[in-house]
Amino acid sequence: MTVELADAIKEFGFPIIAAFGLGYFVYYVWVWVTREIKDSKGKLIMAKDNVVDPDFSITFYDTGLSINVTKSGVEARTAVSNYEYETLLNDKKRNIFVLKPEFLQQFLNDFRDLMVYDNSSQFINDNVIQTENTSITLP
Fold first, then answer.
1. pLDDT number for residue 28
2. What residue ranges in the chain does DSSP mark as E strands?
3. Of 25, 37, 85, 29, nearest to 61 (Cα)?
4. Contacts of residue 80, Cβ cutoff 8 Å, sequence gap at least 6
5. Which residue in 29, 50, 51, 73 could disulfide with 34, CB within 3.0 to 4.6 Å?
């Protein structure tokens, strides 16, 4: 590999090979994500942090200006490293959605309705049902 790289540098020069290496780095090692895009009235058109292609552009009708607007390049996307991208994904997974108090009673009612034991061969009473010890019956 180093012999081939040395031959390429000798034939084409270091700046050309470095430019190809940088192009590879930008295209393959970085991830492109959208910026937050709003129209002239402040209405959200595109949320930020959606993964897109390097040549991403978006066209939308701006009701405030009454024209079609195209956003591309740095107006529409930005590059982030794979580390930043993975950190962003992990941060999104940290969000915990808590049930609003006004929906709690409805959830409890539905849960009780779904968890009622029907009469079967394993039915003991309204609160208890017999089960098998799967660690003994299944190898």
1. 62
2. 30-34, 37-38, 44-46, 51-52, 57-62, 67-72, 77-81
3. 37
4. 30, 31, 32, 33, 88
5. 50
List the structure tokens of 9.
């540098």
Q: Render pLDDT for 39-58 as a digit per residue (tens, 0 to 9).
A: 999 999 999 888 888 889 99
Candidates 24, 38, 40, 78; CA nearest to 56 is 78
Residue 58's domain comprises: 2-137
Q: How many domains are there within the chain?
A: 1
- Residue 117 is predicted with a pLDDT of 66
pLDDT of 121 above 80: no
Ramachandran assignment for 33, one of left (phi > 0), alpha (psi -120 to 50 degrees), beta (any other): beta
* Beta carbons of 53 and 30 less than 8 angstroms apart: no
Dump pLDDT digits (tens) for 23-42: 766 656 678 888 999 999 99
